[in-house]
Fold this sequence. Notes:
The protein is of the alpha+beta class. Helix content is about 45%, strand content about 20%.
Amino acid sequence: MAEDLENTQKPKVILNKQRKSDSPADSSDQTEKKKVVVVKKKPAAAAASSQPAPVQEEHVERKKVHVVPVHHPAPETPQASSVSSGDAVQSAPVQEKRKATSIELSPPRPNVKVGNLADRTKPAQRPGGSYPPRGGSPSGPGRDNFSGAQAREGARDSFGYNGQGGAPRSGGYQGGQGGAPRSGGYQGGQGGAPRSGGYQGGQGGAPRPGGYQGGAPRPGGYQGGAPRPGGYQGGAPRPGGYQGGQGRPGGGYQGGQGRPGGSGPAPLPLDSRGGAGATKKGFKGKKATQYSRRNKEDDFEQKLILQKKKALDKANAIPKEIEIMETISVSELARKMNLKASELIGKLMGMGMMVTMNQSIDADTATILASEYDCTVHIVSLYDETVIESESDGSVELLHRPPVVTIMGHVDHGKTKTLDAIRSANVAAGEFGGITQHIGAYTVETGKGKVTFLDTPGHEAFTMMRARGAEITDIVVLVVAADDGVMPQTIEAINHAKDAKVPIIVAVNKIDKPEANPDKVMTQLSERGLIPEAWGGDTIFVPISALQKVGLDTLLDAILLQAEVLELTANYECRAEGKVIESRIDHGRGIVATIIVERGTLRTGDSYVAGVFSGRVRAIFNDRGEKLEEATPSMPVEILGLEGMPNAGDPFQVTETERIARQISSKRQELKRFENSRNIKKVTLDNLYDTINQGEILELKVIIKGDVQGSVEALKQSLEKLSTRDVRLNVIHASAGAINDSDVMLAAADSNAIIIGFNVRPTPQAKLLAEQEKVDIRKYNIIYKAVEEIEQAMEGMLKPDIKEEVIGTVEVRDVIKVPKIGAIAGSYVLQGLIKRSSSVNVIREGIVVHSGKLSSLRRFKDDVKEVASGFECGIGLDNYSDIKVGDQLEVIEYVEVARKLKDSEKLDKSVPSKEKAE
Ligand SMILES: Nc1nc2c(ncn2[C@@H]2O[C@H](COP(=O)(O)OP(=O)(O)OP(=O)(O)O)[C@@H](O)[C@H]2O)c(=O)[nH]1
């Protein structure tokens, strides 16, 4: 082993030496050449010897490829010339010997086989793996092996080193190696000195591939290949060369080791060893290098093609699902579906829609279109796109939070009174009244806990909040007057609460009244599913008198009890989230919003997004007007620092940074504008005219701004009543406050939207912007005036009424079939006249069987413009040839008649707009 190790280490040194000893090698060139000649003869000799042959066969059987090497045993003879058949015979024993050695050493040279493999059939030709064959003989069978690439490859394989040497050229190699058997490679390497074969091989490697390679430090193949033709060829093209190249090492190495035999034989052993391991390795290595080279290239190409194909398929694949907003441009849809816009346009034309790639189609159309490609469309909404991720509770301990209560009930049953009574009863004297703020909600302290009341009684507010996704009510207190009993709105309230799955507590009010009959209320409610606990149900009934402040504590206790059952808890540590209760403009403080915190803790300085507006909490106030530093769950607070007025029910969320808040706010505003413009179907100044011509419904978009919410609402309702089936009035935005930039931008986006300011004026900036954007701002201070003007504007927008007017009657008396033209009706004008530009209704037995235009009108053979009554004419009908004798043609013309709005059927016939406005 030690020796082996030593040997294995030597190669490099040897190789170096080889280089150094170039000259000697050169000097031996001639010899080599001679040898080469000899070698060429070898084949014959080899052939002559019957022994080698069998060996080969044996190997073939065993290893298939390794056969060749067998011949190399010849190396025994120091001289190349000795590589004869006789040598071959001797090689067997040598191999035997080597087995042991080589097994130890060999691992490193599987390449030997490579050479063999390559030359498998060549051996014979290149006897003695002789030199020539390898490198030289271009024609050598081993040619293929030779490829420079292979050589390189061989080189690369460190083990190729050994193997290569040996392996490659069975014949070639050996020859290369020193051809000489051992000396060959190694010696050559070493100085190859002595043996020309080996040495030369190595050096001469120069001239001969084999030699060279061997000599060469690297795969020989390469080096040899490179410089000298011989080498090159050998290396390159033929296996021989290649092997040699590869083998070099082996050869060289072994030689280097000085074991002549070793070197030479090395290759052989492969076979004999059966090379078991080594051989196998070599074999594999060979395959890898030889065939694999091409195979690899082929594989690579194929993989590349497959990859490209996959990429192409992938690129062209129509996704199974896509997400779109509620409208999408054809080009955008095409992009999302990996299709050409023209293809979609074609499909849309097939659906009867003439659109260009930049025009938008609605989500329904897009869905139908996509379904033709098995693609599902998901409609993404405003908030889906601009969602602020909630902070998860994680391991944070959830703490109790106060219940949020809404008071509902029939008109005049005492809702407000009850709220006030509870509030006043639980607020320190003197605090209630002047100082206390009305912020839409308040919290009362009881000895057993806090309760938050929404200060907007009635189920309308409750439902409105719900409709906006603000289901913040935990408990509903249903106020029922004991003297009045269950009334329609009581039932509505019950239904709303049940629908929202919010528990109900019944407050039977006005028990102070003599006519009060609580039992009757209980009975009536029992019939509605609210069975009192006293009667075995689970609904809490509390008799109270809001007027006399009786039973209020019991009511609060009942609420807290119910809250306990509900186990209301919240995370107090995360970023605050809540809902906007209301917002308003406060002179001196700007926009203020009341919010109820649902989870987390809100602090002064927090950045947030409320609805579509962002802001930074400048100050927090509670329902008593006291300034706070923070607000916790279920607390209603008023905050300052908004950039716009959010709507009641809008979500309120604190963001990580102010930048994020601004980004989300801007995105939401953009999407809101997008949605608003989407709502206004086909209403832009550009397509307004086309829309009218296409007879589509017109819409007038209006933005209403007023001094107080009340007048805004009144104006909104009055204007909306102006909608008819022909013209729809769409109030796209209505709120209290001055007309600002945002309003103008919204109107500008809608093209034909106007702004109505009621008792308000535009800000200077908005006025400028409106001039730039050519947005019409109309200012009124009387609702009636506003309504009247809008009504007139809508009349102006009405398309003319088109009416059919019969201008003549014609009788068909003969039908002449004209080839390529169709049927011509030989007719007689009974009354009026018929014009070439007329349309006709074909009436048969009282039924209109066809309506259409004329294709021709003739008197005898002349085309005429019109034919008056009492004359005959020939009439051709456009796209209709089923005309029959006896048919009557009703000659018609379409006449435009200006209409007034009142001609149109009001959508709401019951409420005349003017009256309502007044
Ligand atoms: N006697 C008596 N009168 C009451 C009581 N509670 C309310 N009222 C009276 O009933 C009337 C209506 O009370 P509100 O609190 O305004 O009733 P509401 O349900 O808020 O009425 P709307 O806001 O119109 O729906 C008022 O005149 C109250 O003074 C009560 O407990 N006893």
